[in-house]
Design goal:
By secondary structure, the chain is α/β, with parallel strands linked by helices. Helices cover about 40% and strands about 20% of the residues.
Length: about 280
């Protein structure tokens, strides 16, 4: 394993940015995290890196990449869309070796991360904000299919998105994303970051969240059933569920759910019960 002294061999990140003309592109959702204390903290708080095959999305100049490679991780594959960043990351191969670090120039939306590395897998990323929720939902669908597909995910979001993910029922920020995440994962906030932590500083705060897949059991509803239920419920969130979920009234009556509740007042467990009832009635 490489130590901090090995990282001294690498040029400072700001020098890497200058050398490779890595001006952050708004169209790519780029805001670079250069403070090694912060990137080291993300890896440290993620825990359990021994033997893990990690994937990083959108590494940019490689701040978090260096922190991951400096840990006991078995392997890291960085998926980067921007060819400038791909070129900037090649110095890391010289230090850590091609067996431990690989760079793939690709669109993360089109890549199956399971094809890149073997289990046990983890995802660590300062996600491009413009595609963060789309990627998260894609990975959640994989987790529903196989709870062991990822050991954990440590991901950075806009704080507003993180607040939605962590929101409890009864909150105005509680929604489809809250339910899907909390159904499939145990999730916690590791820490928040101010705009000044990034280059260039975004206009919003950011949060690092840690996800660990749950063991749902064999009777859990399918991802598609939950997705359809939540789309109906939160598509008309101001209505009582007897209106927004009128197509589910048989299930609502069967499980004894109050039909005068609104979507934001229904706990995660009750949505799961409703979805299971839907599948049971459909199979008759």
């Amino acid at each position: 394993m490489k130590s901090e002294s090995d990282l001294v061999e690498l040029p400072p990140l700001r020098e890497v940015i200058r050398t490779h003309n890595l001006r952050a592109e708004k169209s790519l959702g780029q805001n670079f995290l250069l403070d090694q204390n912060i990137t080291d903290k993300i890896v440290r708080l993620s825990g359990g890196m021994d033997g893990v095959h990690a994937v990083e999305i959108g590494p940019g100049p490689g701040g978090l990449t260096r922190a991951i490679l400096g840990s006991s991780v078995a392997q890291l594959v960085a998926v980067e869309f921007d060819p400038r960043s791909v070129a900037a990351l090649h110095d890391l191969i010289a230090v850590f070796g091609a067996e431990k670090f690989e760079i793939l120039q690709a669109d993360a939306l089109e890549i199956d991360l399971c094809s890149l590395v073997p289990a046990p897998r983890a995802i660590l990323s300062n996600l491009p904000y413009n595609i963060s929720t789309v990627l998260l939902l894609k990975w959640l669908e994989q987790i529903r299919a196989d709870q062991n597909v990822y050991r954990f995910m440590s991901l950075m979001f806009q704080k507003e998105v993180a607040d939605r993910i962590l929101a409890d029922s009864g909150s105005k920020t509680y929604g489809r994303l809250s339910v899907m995440v909390q159904w499939l994962c145990s999730v916690k906030r590791l820490f928040d970051l101010p705009p000044s932590a990034f280059t260039p500083p975004p206009k919003i705060k950011s949060s690092v969240l840690h996800f660990v897949p749950k063991d749902l059991g064999k009777a859990a509803p399918s991802f598609k059933t939950m997705e359809a239920l939540l789309a109906a419920a939160f598509g008309q969130r101001r209505k009582m569920i007897r209106g927004s979920l009128s197509a589910y009234m048989a299930e609502i009556e069967q499980v004894g759910l109050d039909p005068t509740l609104r979507a934001e007042d229904v706990p995660v467990a009750d949505y799961v019960t409703l979805a299971s009832a839907r599948e049971a009635l459909s199979s008759r």
